[in-house]
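Give me structure tokens for this 408-residue protein.
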Amino acid sequence: MSKQLSFFLVILAFIMSGRSVSQTNSFPDFETQPTLSWKYPTNSPIIGSPVINEQTVYVGNTDGTLYALNLNDGKEVWKFPTYGPIRSTVCIEKEKLFLLSGDGNLYCVNKLNGSLLWRFKTFTGYIGDRKYDFADYYASSPLLYEKAIYFGCSDGRIYALNTENGTLLWSYETGDIVHTKPAISQGKLFAGSFDGNVYALNINTGALVWKFKSVGHRYFPTGEVTGNPAVTNNLVLIGARDYHVYAIEQNGGYCYWTKQFPKGWALPITVLDTVAYIGTSDDRELVAVDARTGETIWKANAKFNIFGGCSFTATMGYFGTLSGNLFGFDLKSGAVKWNFTVDGYSKNHLNYLKDDDTYRDDIGSILTSNDAVLTMYNDLGAIFSTPAVTEDKLVITSSDGNVYCLRK
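Here you go.
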């Protein structure tokens, strides 16, 4: 494979999906491959993760629309239009739903009927959200904490708004785009920026507590911090484009441990108890590490790039890949128990991949540009999202434009 093509493939490994808090796993396992219960088609790729709340699935689409779907049958309950692509995940408080759109606005919507409650225009509100490069897929997903909503923006700012009326509480300007979902712990907000820094801010005032600079890499000297922070055991775990995952002490801002991945980015981090599940790009592995030390516990072959985070049930976990495959794996050993393929993969994978999901020998003549790589991911039905799990259903989104609900 040519160096140019390798660069195209490496640069695509940007994610949202690690999560900012430890995940729970109280639901029973999907021990065998679940079956398709329903499918909701849209006309555009879906990047953000589905959110399930009181028998309704909420999904934002790159067509600029927020969809509310009935969890049981997939029928549309309502939809809310915005004026820019939605590349983030919503958050919900009681009857309020918070949505960040590519039109540069943070919307507060009534989750029951989709009516607008209020809107906040960021500094990008007149020109829309800006992408860093073609591989900058995600926008910042808003985080709710007590009576404030926090999110980052392509204007380089981190915002804090009052949830009742959308008034600005404070904003902090970094050196470049902020597309990570913030995390909060012990009175501090943590977020990464494309300027290569991790920021810790006072959640009440927005004042800088500390910032941590990534090392950088030959191909990415800035060391853009694009993974979502996950806080556990007094450490902030976060991935950057310099092929490193950093564990930063949350009070002092110093690096407690770091882990380098040899082939590419390792951005999505999901923490359960004391284990961090890290999705890798060109390494094509899900790696379980001790979140306290960074020591590897096991590695699972994912066959393709992982951009989204994991979700969990009692003894199993679930994650998707950019090849359009959803995997169910054993938490203790990493053994893959089953995988589900989306429509895009079933129809198009042989246009790009061999039967074992390695690239075709002539892939260099197929992926000749950035746009060609993006087209491949859309054709394959790449899963950029984190699965949403309930008692008997598992919901995923795909860049083939479909929302899939699987059932035991």
